[in-house]
Specification:
The chain is built from two helices and 32 strands. By secondary structure, it is mostly beta strands. The protein has one domain: YVTN repeat-like/Quinoprotein amine dehydrogenase (Methylamine Dehydrogenase, Chain H). Strand 2 and strand 3 form a beta hairpin.
């Protein structure tokens, strides 16, 4: 579920009604594709209401994509366009490449699918789908096991669901029920066992994914995981959560909201310890985050925030010896004071000198220049938009950048079912290059929530 205000929701439906009148793909000359040099492969998932499929695209030297192929997981995807907010949900890191394998979280099947990658061709072979030991797995992260070459620790975040409050006045609704969202939400509840962080070991020789233990579970008050990610040095694990937001209104009621949290743990030899967290009243949706150049900094994107805290689309957190504190906050997206731009997804440039924050509702990216040594935010750059492609309101999600820092790939996940292509200049600015509409989901373009493209991952050919 995504935080759309009433105006945004109205505009969303207007945009959808005109979907078929808009250009949704780039004409591609078949012979030209044949002669382009492939430099790597990019993957996302259809994450539809039927069987979830992995979509493979070749990445060409000029930044374009093509040669699409799909690979079924044989388990259900996570979309449900008949649910509130058309079944939308928030998570980052749902599809990851780990060693010679691709892992994706199948939220509709409560499992993790493991595929072997043929590195030269990008072809995938399904190895297995493994129990997520919770409900609605949404995020995956990994790090090598120290002293054991070819072995990886894999962390998986189970979100369970997204309890929320929608509308206002006489129309106000609490989901899944008034009973669920009243009283002391910090007290134990049967659903707590399904909001978890699970640890696995992945064997890079054969793709065996073995469950090790539950690292933590969360109460309904502050929600389940939106993202999990090991720090670059592997000594910490961070988790962002959903909280209890108030949506589909311009007047977010603090009394109806419960703050999201960002947890940090020390991690050593498969054990998580010294749990600490940051929360702030009025911020109820922390989704994507990136570790800074130092392992004590996190850049966190926030979407469900009260009007008084509209300049908290991005928060910078510092992990101290005993607690996590906020050291800075910044506005994201549009500057219209009547709109709260709700940021959700993020990525860092390969040199860690640029942070790109995606806003789902308004389809923009807010770029921030960083000091690559200290991690300090130096400057906010002009917004990056979806160019001349089809971009209905509430569509933009995951984004990634090529390893040479020259090309950006940005998903239109919820209605355009597209990969939006950009060239990145040396100053971090990005120029729209075109839009590739996935053949696997093309018949549903303009029908929001039939699919919900989940996660984006890529690698380079050597």
């Amino acid at each position: 579920m995504k935080g759309r205000d009433l105006y945004g929701a109205t505009m969303f439906m207007v945009a959808i009604s005109s979907a078929l009148a808009l250009t949704t793909t780039i004409p591609v000359d078949a012979q030209a594709v044949v002669t382009k040099r492939i430099v790597g492969y990019l993957y996302t998932t259809t994450n539809g209401e039927g069987i979830n499929e992995i979509v493979r695209l070749a990445r060409y030297e000029d930044g374009t994509v093509g040669d699409e192929k799909t690979y079924p997981t044989y388990v259900r995807g996570g979309a449900n366009h008949e649910a509130p907010a058309l079944g939308d949900y928030d998570a980052q890191g749902q599809t990851q490449i780990i060693g010679d394998f691709l892992l994706t979280a199948d939220i509709g099947a409560h499992s993790i699918s493991v595929f072997k990658i043929d590195r030269q061709s990008g072809e995938l072979t399904l190895i297995a789908s493994v129990n997520s030991y919770g409900r609605k797995p949404v995020s995956i992260s990994s790090m090598p096991v120290v002293g054991q070459p070819g072995m990886f620790w894999v962390a998986v975040g189970n979100q369970w669901d997204q309890p929320t409050v929608i509308y206002e006045g006489d129309k106000l609704r609490r989901l899944p029920s008034d009973q669920f969202l009243t009283g002391d939400l910090s007290k134990p509840h049967p659903s707590d066992k399904d909001r978890t962080i699970e640890l696995y070991r992945l064997d890079n020789r054969d793709g065996t994914l073995t469950h090790v233990r539950t690292l933590d579970h969360f109460s309904r008050e502050n929600g389940g995981a939106s993202q999990v990610a090991f720090s670059p040095d592997g000594r910490k694990l961070a988790v962002s959560t959903w909280g209890i937001p108030h949506f589909l209104t311009r007047d977010h009621k603090l009394e109806e909201m419960h703050p999201s949290r960002v947890y940090i743990y020390d991690f050593d030899n498969g054990m998580a310890s010294r749990r600490r967290y940051f929360e702030e009243a009025g911020i109820s949706g922390s989704v994507g985050f990136e570790w800074g150049p130092r392992a004590d900094l996190l850049y966190v994107t926030n979407f469900s925030i009260i009007n008084a805290k509209s300049n908290n689309g991005l928060t910078v957190l510092k992990d101290g010896s005993k607690q996590v504190t906020k050291v800075a906050n910044y506005s994201t997206g549009q500057t219209n004071p009547k709109d709260i731009d709700e940021a959700c997804w993020s990525t860092l440039s390969p040199k860690k000198d640029m942070l790109y924050v995606v806003s789902y509702v308004t389809n923009v990216i807010t770029p921030f220049r960083l000091d690559p040594v200290s991690g300090k935010v130096v400057k906010r750059l002009p917004l990056i938009t979806r160019g001349n492609g089809y971009a209905p309101s509430s569509d933009s999600k995951d984004v990634t950048i090529s390893s040479d820092g020259k090309h950006m790939y940005w998903l239109g996940s919820f209605a355009s079912y597209s990969v939006n292509l950009y060239d990145i200049a040396s100053d971090g600015s990005a120029t729209f290059k075109g839009q590739y509409t996935l053949a696997a989901t093309k018949e549903a373009v303009g029908q929001p929530g039939v699919y919900d493209l989940a996660g984006i991952a890529q690698y380079d050919l050597k």
